[in-house]
Each structure stands twice: as C-alpha cells, then as structure tokens.
Specification:
The complex is a heterodimer.
Chain A: H1 2-30, H2 33-36, H3 39-62, H4 69-74, H5 81-86, H6 92-113, H7 119-143, H8 167-196, H9 201-231, H10 243-268, H11 272-295, H12 308-332, H13 347-377, H14 387-404, H15 407-410, H16 418-442, H17 448-474, H18 483-508, E1 510-516, E2 521-524, E3 527-538, E4 542-553, E5 556-561, E6 564-568, E7 573-576, E8 578-580, E9 585-595, E10 600-609, H19 612-629
Antiparallel strand pairs in A: 1-10, 2-3, 3-4, 4-5, 4-6, 6-7, 8-9, 9-10
Chain B: H1 7-22, E1 43-45, E2 53-55, E3 64-69, H2 74-89, E4 94-99, H3 103-113, E5 119-123, H4 127-131, E6 139-143, E7 149-154, H5 159-171
Parallel strand pairs in B: 3-4, 4-5
Antiparallel strand pairs in B: 1-2, 3-6, 6-7
The chains are: A alpha+beta, B alpha/beta.
Chain lengths: 659, 175
C-alpha cells in the first residue's frame, strides 16, 4: 500500500510542477498578480509531495520491504542499518528521486527568500524551475519508477553495490546533486531575464550567492568522489579523466567562469550577455552529465545500467531546456546593451581572460569526452582519447590561469597599470621563488617542471596574501575585509595549495607492484614495509583476506596497516586499501591477487607525497565559495518599483566602485 | 551581431546530434579507427637501450603484435603470463609499447614478471599512445608486415584471442 502512495505522491508532484511551470508564466505575460502568485504555493506543495515519496522509499529500505523491486535489488537483510538510508540513492531510480528532492528543495529556498525581488521576474524564474522539475519528475514516473513492485515479493534482496558501502560515496551524490541543481537557479534567472529582455544588475547581484553555493557543493562533491576513488577503488590515483568525472568537472569549470563573470556584470554592468550564456551552459552541462551517466552512451566505472529509452528521454529534455534557452538567447541577446569597451589592462580584461581559459578548458574536456561518439558518428570507428590528452591540454591551459590569479584582485576596474600592480606583487614573487628554491634543495629529485609548478602554487598563495595585507593596510577600518574578499582569497589560496599538491604528488610518488608473502620486507621511499601475515576477516555481508603490514623507518615502527580484499555476497570483489595518511605523505597499501597457492600475494605499495593537499585545496575552494556567499551586500535588494521597461538600451548607472 | 548570437545554439545542435547517434550502441565494442590503415608513424627510444631508436619503419617486414602496457596497470599483470607463454611458443613477435611509465618502474616490473617482448618502445610523453587512440592499458594491435593495423584488442588478451583471432590474421603473413 505504501509504495503506491509514494507513486501517487510523485504523480501529484508532477501535476503541481506543471502548474508551477505554466500558470505563473501566463500570469507574468498578462500581468495577472493572482496567476503569478500561484508559483510559490505550487513549489511548496510539490516539495511536500516529493519529500513524502522520498520518505516512503527510505522507510521501505529501513523496513526492508523486498516487495519493491528497487529495494530488493539494492539491499539485503545483512546490510547494516546506516547504509539502508544511503542505499536509497544507491542506483538509478532512487538517485533520480534524490535529484528531484534536491531540485524541489532549492526551488522552495528560492521561493521563500526571494520575496523582495520583482514579482514578475520571480514568477518567470520559478516557472522555469517548474519546467525543469516536470522533466525530472516525468522521467522518474515514466521510465524509472522506484516504487515498482516485485511479484512475488522476495525473501531477501540482492545487496547494495559494495562500492557504495562507504562513507565517501554516501555523501558524494547528494553534494554533487546540490551543485548540479544549484546551477538551475542561475539558469532560471538567466532565462527569466531573456524573457524579460533585460539584465537587471539587482538580480545578478542577488543570484551571485546561489551560484557560489552551488559551485561550492559541486567542488566538495567532486573532491569527495576523487577521494573515494583514491582509497576505495584501489587505483591509487586521484583523478582519471573518466567520462563521469569529466561530466561533473565541465559544469565546475563553467561554474567557476560564471562566478567571475557574474562579478563583472554585477559591478560593472558589462559582460551581460556572456553571463547569461554561461549560466545557461553551466546548468546544461549538468544535464549533459546526467545524460552521459544514465544513457549508457559512454563506458565508465560509474555508469548506471544503460537504457536507450532513458537516454532518449534525457536527450529530448536536454533539447527542450537547453535548446529553448539558447534559442531565446539567440533572439534576445543582440538586444542587450552592448558592453562599453574595456581598457587593455583592467580587472575586466583579466576576468575576461580567466573566462576564456576556463571555458576553453571546458570545451577541451567536452571534446575529449565526446570524441568516441563523434568519431563513431563520422564513421571513423570507435576511438577515444586517454589521460595523456587531458593531461597535456590541461597543463597548457591552466598554467597561465594559475600565474594570473594574484593579479586579478589587485587590479582596479576600468583600467590599471600593469607595472604598478606588478610592483605590489614583487615581494610575493620573490618569496615564491625563494620557497621553490628551498623545496628544490630539500627534494633534489623534483624535476624542473615540478619546481616551476610548486613556485606557481606558492605564488598564488603569497600573491593572495599580498592582496589581503594591502587591504588591511589601506582600506578604511570596518570595511577592510568583506566576506566576499575573504571567500575569494580562501578559494584562491585553495587553488595554490591544490597546485602544489598535484605537482608534488604527480612527480614524486612511488608506486611499486611487488610479490610478497608473510615475512617479506620491501623498501619504499626510505620506509621498510613488512608483511606479517594474511588473515581471514569476515564482515556482515562479505568475506575478506586481510594483510597485516608494518611500516618502519630506520627500524622504528611507524604504523600497522590492514588492507583487505573483500568478496561480497553479491559476488563482487573489492579492494579495501589501507592508508597511512599524513599531511606530507600517504602510505597506500592494496592487496592485489593471490599468486600461486603458497600464500604469496601481489601487493601494491604507493608512497604519495602531499596528496592530501589536493583535497585540502578543494576544501578551501569550497569554503571560499560558501564564505563569499554570506556577503551582506549581495543580499541587499533595493525594493524596486515594478517599472516594466522593454529592453532598455542602457544599463543603470555604475555602482560606486569597490576595491 | 544577430548571427553571432546563434552560434551557441548551433554548437548545441551539433552536440545533440552526436549524442543522438550514440544512443543504444555498445560503447564496449571499440574497434580502432586505424583498422586496415597504416599504423601511425613513430620514432621513440627503446626501453632497455635509451640510445637505440625504434621507428615504425624499422619494424616493417614482419608482422607483430603491439602490446600497450605499463607497470602501473593491474590488468597487464593479469595478461602477462599469457604473453610469456606466447613468447615461449615463439609463434608471434611481440612488441611492447610502454605507456605512461618510467624506465625504472618498467624495467623492474619486467625483471619481476618476465619480459616477453622482442622490442619495447618507451613512450615517454604518451604521444604514440595518443596517435594509436589508446584509451587504457592493456591494448593490443595486430600489425601486418606492411605496417597496417589488422586488429585491435581492448583489455587483457585471452588464449582464445591469440588462437582464433591473432593467429588466423597472421596466417596469411610471413612470420
């Protein structure tokens, strides 16, 4: 009975989404306040029904109702209770429901907090979110019903994919979806602006925190995925240019560009059309990611069961949403006020360069990801490009971007003198060079390319500190550091730390594949690793071989590690690597396969210096996004009289310049 | 100005077409675009002898199986005993393409598990692998005496691949 109620709730939510998508749009067009006012209650109602359906599915997992096919496929009686909550999003149907729930939640937040924005504009923006909601709810109800019954009911289920029985992966999808869906807000604003035919700096300002928060969630989502791949997949790396990783990375890159271009549009009124286009692209790439993951057109470790029907559905939806938005853009964008010329060296031009580099990087990732499909469509056969392509092009595009970061905050809007800015950065540059030289003296094995990379990372950190110092020295008390500046600086320092981590770990890591049996000792990066014994360890729903390793330095015991090779009831074999994590280096031990019958194992030993810095950098970027979103100035909305202008030729006057 | 605004829509339409073409096809079947075409030209140093150069031309005249491997690659180790066996039988010439690796690691790996290759190309910057459209290791290419790509295998080779695919392909070729 309950599953049927869940299904009915979803259908009701879909009907409310249709109301939310149509009535306010009509109301906005004919200026009927009563119709426009429907948007908010419809969004609230929809959220209640989606939450109800989600609650029922969770309840079915907790109570282990194996009469529901989805529950039976993704859990079993032995599954620990805490995984039963996360098993809800363990496969396609449930994760889609989670997506819908998060979208609905964002819509509610937007509806509740936006009462001071012009009503017509908000009616349109909420209607656009309603359209997106229709797509995903219809997708759930028509192709991926999580409440489908299994007749007859099963006594026990199949078990949750063991890859997902892990903390990292429990948190990874919700964070990622928060990011993906968060870009829907910027998208809805952009489309509403295009319908209106004008870009109002007030709502650009107001939408900035939303973009920052979405981007912050996406950052942490991607970082968690990377961290998880590192310790759970047993691959020893942190990024693999897998199509699904790329799918989340593309909106991240465009989102980063959007954050910067929104700043320009809000403060200077320029780049308006470009900001709209980026907002459309960021969300469209999120949808594209969904398509790539769920349609089965590309292979990946993450891909859900491939289903052509689902692929066609998402593609049609993508065409309606993105195609519609871009058509609107094509018609309306030329009417938007043309940007005043930007002087050759100014903050605008630096941010433009930032945008070009980020968007080009995104295009490169997109080409690399879709290349197998393109090649096949053009009859070149099935081919794809590997990590070397991505590694090469990323280095080429990101190196200049990283070196330019410190210039941005110190350069004034409208125009500045490059020598003057450089002068205020000379200490930072000298310190970065000095630090890089010190690093090189300590670690003589570091190749020159890596030394330059370390120097770049430290340069970003010191350059950002130079900006903070100058603010504290020169600005009026009380206005020294706004949340926006602190957030930006945190994120930039995060980039610096990330770069140092990547460069060091990529050039100094030691990876050894060895054959070991009890009593064997192997020397890795100055440490002695001894395999004491291999024992049998059984978990609730798996059996495992566990190696007991001792890591010693100069005879002194540093730690004891217990990597496992698990065989789950479902039949999957998983490598549970052991990690001796440290701020400056990780020791990583993974069990390979048994060799022969004499008790010997193929063992992977990795020494990963500074790999933590990669995720530490990502954490700081996330913190930066969240902190800057708390900026009070961005929440101040001057209540505007609802003057309806049709595509005014000029932007409102420039706001007083800041920093 | 007006036309320029349509560019994003055009790009999107092109992407949409590509996506449409990919629906319902099996991405795991990955025959090479190079099939029947001459193998990409390359010149690189040998793994064991950094002063010796191996070129695509120097390998002509004898069909061979080009095997992409790396010491970091777990599946390569699964495949390795079979390659050792193939080498022992001496029926097929194996040429290794050491990808994304360091000389040190690769040499140690081969010392540990055995070296079945007649020659090993050291692809220092991964450019040869890009030219061959390598997506991951191991991958193997059957290359004729005239230097044409006859077949591509993705993933570890099996006994069945060697007996029923590689051998018949090479049957018409002089060993």
């Amino acid at each position: 009975m309950m599953p049927e109620l869940g299904q009915i709730a979803l259908i009701l939510a879909l009907l409310l989404a249709i109301v939310q998508a149509t009535v306010p749009l009509i109301g906005a067009h004919w200026r009927q306040p009563a119709l426009m006012a429907v948007a908010r209650p419809a969004a609230y109602g929809q959220f209640v029904f989606v939450l109800f359906a989600y609650g029922i599915l969770t309840e079915a997992f907790v109570a282990q109702d194996f009469s529901i096919a989805y529950v039976a496929q993704n859990s079993n009686l032995a599954l620990p209770w805490h995984y039963r909550f996360s098993a809800v999003w363990g496969a396609h149907e449930g994760s889609l429901l989670l997506w819908v729930l998060i979208l609905s939640g964002w819509t509610v937040a937007l509806a509740a907090l936006s009462s001071r924005l012009p009503e017509r504009f908000m009616a349109r923006a909420l209607a656009v979110l309603g359209i997106i909601s229709i797509g995903f709810l219809a997708f759930t109800v028509l192709t991926s019903n999580p409440f489908e019954r299994h007749v007859p009911p099963l006594a026990d289920g199949n078990d949750l994919n063991p890859l997902l029985q892990d903390f990292g992966l429990i948190v990874h999808p919700p964070m990622l979806y928060m990011g993906y869906v968060g870009f829907a807000v910027a998208f809805a604003f952009a489309v509403a602006a295009l319908i209106e035919g004008r870009v109002d700096r007030q709502w650009v300002r107001w939408s900035r925190p939303w973009t920052n928060v979405a981007w912050a969630f996406l950052t942490i989502g991607i970082a968690l995925g990377s961290w998880w791949a590192y310790y759970e997949l047993g691959w020893g790396g942190w990024w693999f240019w897998d199509p699904v990783e790329n799918a989340s990375f593309m909106p991240w890159l465009v989102g980063a560009a959007l954050i910067h271009s929104q700043a320009v549009t809000e403060k200077r009124g320029t780049f308006a059309a470009w900001t709209l286009l980026l907002a459309i692209c960021a969300f469209s790439l999120s949808l594209l990611g969904t398509f790539l993951v769920r349609s089965g057109v590309l292979t990946s470790v993450h891909a859900f069961a491939s289903d052509p029907t689902r692929g066609i559905f998402i593609l049609v939806f993508l065409v309606i949403v993105t195609g519609g938005a871009l058509t609107l853009y094509a018609i309306r964008a030329p009417k938007l006020a043309a940007a005043p010329p930007v002087s050759l060296y100014s903050r605008e031009s630096l941010l433009l360069l930032n945008n070009i580099l980020l968007v080009t990087a995104c295009a490169m990732v997109l080409i690399g990801t879709l290349y197998p499909l393109v090649a096949e469509a053009l009859g070149w056969g099935k081919i794809s490009v590997g990590p070397p392509y991505f590694g090469l092009m990323f280095f080429v595009l990101m190196a200049p971007l990283v070196w330019l970061i410190p210039f941005g905050p110190l350069t004034r809007w409208k125009g500045d003198s490059l020598p003057a800015v450089f002068l205020s950065l000379r200490t930072a540059l000298a310190l970065a060079a000095l630090a890089a030289a010190l690093v090189w003296i300590v670690e003589r094995e570091l190749p020159l390319k890596a030394v330059i990379g370390v120097c770049a990372g430290i340069w970003v950190i010191f350059g950002t500190l130079a900006f903070l110092l100058r603010r504290m020295r020169n600005a009026a008390p009380g206005r020294m550091l706004t949340a926006e500046m602190v957030g930006m600086s945190l994120a930039h320092i995060g980039v610096g730390i990330f770069v140092v981590g990547v460069v060091v770990t990529e050039s100094l890591n030691v990876e050894r594949d060895v054959r070991m049996q009890a009593g064997d000792m192997v020397e890795v990066a100055g440490y002695q690793v001894t395999l004491r014994e291999v024992v049998r360890q059984d978990g609730p729903n798996f059996i495992a071989d566990e190696g007991v390793f001792e890591i010693r330095q100069d005879g002194e015991l540093m730690s004891t590690q217990h990597p496992q090779k698990r065989r789950y009831l479902r039949g999957q074999v998983m490598t549970e690597a052991a990690l001796d994590a440290g701020f400056f280096a990780d020791f990583y031990i993974a069990m390979g396969e048994p060799i022969g019958t004499g008790g010997a194992w193929a063992i992977r030993l990795y020494y990963k210096p500074m790999i933590r810095w990669v995720w530490l950098g990502a954490l700081l970027m996330m913190a930066g996004g969240l902190v800057s979103a708390t900026e009070r100035r961005l929440r101040q909305t001057i209540v505007e009289r609802e003057v309806v202008q049709s595509a005014p030729e000029q932007m409102p006057d420039a706001l007083p310049e800041r920093a | 100005m007006l036309l320029r605004a349509f560019i994003p829509l055009g790009v999107f339409a092109a992407i949409g077409l590509v996506l449409w073409s990919g629906i319902g096809k099996n991405p795991q079947l990955l025959p090479s675009a190079l099939l029947g075409k001459p193998a990409p030209a390359f010149a690189a140093k040998a793994l064991h002898a950094p002063e010796t150069e191996i070129t695509s031309a120097s390998l002509l005249g004898k069909p061979y199986l080009l095997n992409v491997f790396g010491s970091w690659c777990v599946s390569c180790r699964v495949e390795h005993p079979l390659l050792m066996e193939v080498e022992r039988r001496g029926e097929i010439t194996l040429v290794g393409l050491n990808w994304n690796d360091t000389r040190e690691d690769a040499t140690r790996w081969l010392a540990q598990f055995g070296d079945p290759y007649s020659q090993i190309i050291f692809d220092a910057d991964g450019r040869i692998a890009i030219d061959f459209g390598v997506t991951g290791a191991p991958e193997s290419f059957v290359i004729s005496a005239e230097g044409r790509v006859l077949h591509k295998f993705v993933g570890p080779l099996t006994e069945d691949d060697i007996e029923n695919k590689v051998k018949p392909l090479l049957a018409g070729q002089a060993l």
